[in-house]
Design goal:
The complex is a heterodimer of chains A (about 290) and B (about 290). Chain A is built from 12 helices and no strands. By secondary structure, chain A is an all-alpha fold. Chain B has a two-stranded antiparallel sheet with strand order 1-2. The chains are: A mainly alpha (about 290), B mainly alpha (about 290).
Chain lengths: ~290, ~290
Amino acid sequence: MDYLLHIFIVFLIYAIFAISLNLELGYTGLYNFGHVAFFGIGAYTSALLSLAGYPVTLGMVGGMLLAGVLGTLLAIPALRLSGDYFGIATLSFGEIVRLFFLNERWLTKGPMGLPGIPRPAWIGEGVAGLPRFLIFCLLLTVMVFLVTRRITRSPFGRALKVVREDEYVAQALGKNTLSFKVRAVAVGSILAGLAGSLWAHYISYISPADFTLTETILVLLCVVLGGRGTNRGPILGAFVIIFFQEVIRFLPIPPDFGRFVAPLQGMVYGAALIILMLKRPEGLLPEYKQ
Amino acid sequence: MEYYAQLLLNGIIAGSIYALFAVGLTMVYGVFRFINFAHGELIAWGAYIAFFFTRSPFSLPIYLAALPALAIAAVIGLAQDRFVYRKLRHGNRITLLIASIGLSYFLRNGIRLIWGSDLQTYGLAPVRGFFFAGLSITPTQIAMTAAAIFFLGILYFILTRTLLGKCLRAVADNMTLAQVMGISIEKVSVTVWLLAAVFSAVGGILLAVDTNLEPLMGLTNLVKAFAAVLLGGAGNVWGALLGGLFIGIAENIGVAFISPGYKDFISFALIVLMLLFRPRGIFGIIGGFR
């Protein structure tokens, strides 16, 4: 039962993470291949602030803000050119942020990571706090879902889709496309920061190894599998992927083969992305019904 | 002073390897107008297959093991195009990029599956370096530079002195027009993938001779190749060559001033600076291929 609660909490955190990427990738058509950086920034900021004795809520807000600011600062130079460059810049940004976590031992304790990150006081630590943490995550997920739905259905959201489909049309209609894209990245980064800080307070231990390209691929798969540019798609994608990941743990794997499980899983994720792109690029819930 | 001269020399040697990575990446960009995120895995696979042939039952010396490694890397390069990219070439760009990052993740985990995640070396005996005008250089490094110059010379010959090279430049300039003029796109695309795969594999093997093999070597060097491509102006082969040299030098001189943990940061900083100030590349004026 507790394990089921755990799976649901991880699913909800990934749902927020996937929604945040979908705003950039699905709605605005920006290939962010380093989205995990903002997840990590949110996690580390929130963890460090709460370990320094500030309230957890303040830490989470701090994590979201810093992720948003850094996302904006990265987006302004990287978005002045076509989408491919944004892919490069974000991919390498993700690596740089990981290097930063790894090397700045005075701040992040390097590869040792940060243990003992507290949860909000009213939730309580350990297994006893799981149901209340689940409710906390559920509330936040619903809030994020409603906020992004409101954003994407507003004129701003429609303008984002125009930018995605044809930047010149958007410009001809008098839209400042750079400003739209930067704002999409800013909101996406803030939400990724929220997901990251939830992750840190839930798992209570973070290290640079938690914020690698693997996580980016995982969340990318959530978005693409569920359906890019839809509100419900990323949530469905996160549900399928997280449950798949947890089911694997129960497979009877001989101990000698333990070494092969992680790479095989990675190969499955990579192959799933390729096959999805070849056979069903619109995902499980297509944006437009045929 | 000699210290800096030594760093410069090391930089030129490293840079000639980066140039090998970058020319392939930029050629693929020049012809197909997309950035192959799986390019780094060609580097890593080349190095690992050579590693495979240096072990029993083959136990070949490294210069012989390189030959089957180059052949297999070329097959992987062609297979990338045949089974994934060719089918997506005329579709949505975002599907192409997601497929390429999925492919890179698939191939990287393939390496981890077969050879494990630990550092490996070719197990070559260390050789005593020569001292020349106060600078130390090992025979391995001389061989590396010679190999890099040899392969880049071949590239120069193919691109400027053969009909195939002329076709390649024509397709890069304007694919539709080249097709109208009766140039076989298939022939050109096979050539581009062959060249890109062989050059990255050569670079990967040389790099592994000098340092070591690890599954992440593809990703790390992909970022460097990107930076070199941007420096040279995307699609410009000679620009990418100079860009690779520049990055090798900048990295090696850079470690005199910043912590070695941030060596990879230099290429990232260059990417952001280039995107901000000179998106067309600094060597773009020199011309050449494309």
